[in-house]
Amino acid sequence: QCRNGWYGMDCSVPSISSYNLEWPKWLVPLKVDHLQGNNTDHASTVAVKKRPLIYVYDLPPEFNALLLQGRHDKGHSVNRLYDAKNRTDWTSILYGSQMSIYESMLASPHRTLNGDEADYFFVPVFDSWMIPLVDENPHLSKKVSLFVYAHYTSDLYKKAYDHIMAQYPYWNRSSGRDHIWTFAWDEGACMAPKEVWNGVMLVHWGNTNKKHRNSTTAYNDDNWDSIPQDLRGNHSCFDPVKDIVIPVWKNPKLISSKSHDRPREDRKTLFYFNGNLGPLYNGRPEDRYSMGIRQKMGEEFGSSPNKEGKLGKQR
Questions:
Q1: Do 179 and 269 belong together in one domain?
Q2: Residue 123, helix vs strand vs coil
Q3: pLDDT at site 258
Q4: Which residue numbers delimit the Exostosin GT47 domain (predicted)?
């Protein structure tokens, strides 16, 4: 619940009744790029905006908050928890990037509350929060479909698109090319419905489908092969012209800000890989997960014996 005078997904959108309150500078009605004129009633109502301006859609909670509320593990797919003293306790869950981007957008000086002046539109649909709901709830039984998560995820994004088209005028301004979507789960925007594909996709996986046109995931619920053609269409998983590959979430405390500043002579390791290599290296039974890339690295650089006791080439 928001305090009186405020509303929106983060209780940051002011209503008429809040005009007499002292607003944070990043929330007040702002001038764009530069101040115009000196006729202001109150100094706090004037500030400078930074372009590009981003409008964050205030979607119904079924696309975000309710999914977060229903997770079975409190640390699942979020970038932070709070301790008893309300201090941030960072998580290490890979899919926390979706929440991290969301938080950053909401608090950004580039954010605008006026969609008419926006350069980009951020659509807060969170597929990673949907994973445990679909996987662990009996009313969404896997007996109905082995690939139930992929179906539900595509349908969720399609419903968000339908809501935007019905409630907002901005999509048709550019046929959606200025809309930003996040697909944080393994194979990402492969399962995006065809209606949203014009937008900018933020994904962890830049597969252009030039060689692999089918799902290669080892996690069956992520398999998007069986998504109906009329829902997914025939797009790739990633378009390097418009989409962006982003890193998975990492606990900030574990990241050294100076690790990339080491001089070249101090870098003694040519290549480092830490990941599961499949059955030849006593790993998970599937070898398709990385489209053979991990196995190729194991063959070329592996330092652990396979089941036959053979080592990969040493470098």
A1: no
A2: strand
A3: 61
A4: 50-314
Do 95 and 240 reside in the same domain of the chain? yes
Structural domain containing residue 108: 54-251
**Number of domains composing the chain:** 2
Same structural domain, 270 and 228:
no
pLDDT at 150: 79
Mention every residue, 6+ apart, whose C-beta is less than 8 A from residue 246.
97, 101, 202, 203, 204
Stated as kind and residue range, the H or E segment containing 158 is helix 148-167
Question: 138, 229, 252, 232: which is closest to 188 by C-alpha?
Answer: 232
Residue 65 and residue 196: Cα distance in Å, rounded?
A: 21
Q: Are 147 and 224 in contact (CB under 8 A)?
A: yes
Whether pLDDT at 256 is above 80: no
Reply yes or no on whether the pLDDT at 148 is more than 90. no
Answer whether residue 40 shows pLDDT above 60: no
- The per-residue pLDDT for range 72-118, each reduced to its tens digit, is 778 888 899 999 999 999 998 888 999 999 999 998 889 998 899 99
Let me know whether 276 and 157 are in one domain: no
Give pTM, 2 decimals: 0.80
Residues 194, 216 within the same domain = yes
Task: Supply the DSSP string of 3-49, one letter for each residue.
Answer: PTTEESTTS-EE-GGGTTS---TTTS--BSSS---S--S-GGG--B-
Q: Which of 195, 68, 60 is nearest to 128 (CA)?
A: 68
Is the preceding peptide bond at 52 cis, omega within 30 degrees of 0? yes
The closest alpha carbon to 248, from 95, 89, 104, 128, belongs to: 95
Q: Using one digit for the tens of pLDDT, what is the confidence trace for 292-310?
A: 777 777 777 766 666 676 6
Query: Same domain for 223 and 277?
Result: no
Sole residue written with tokens 């975000």: 64
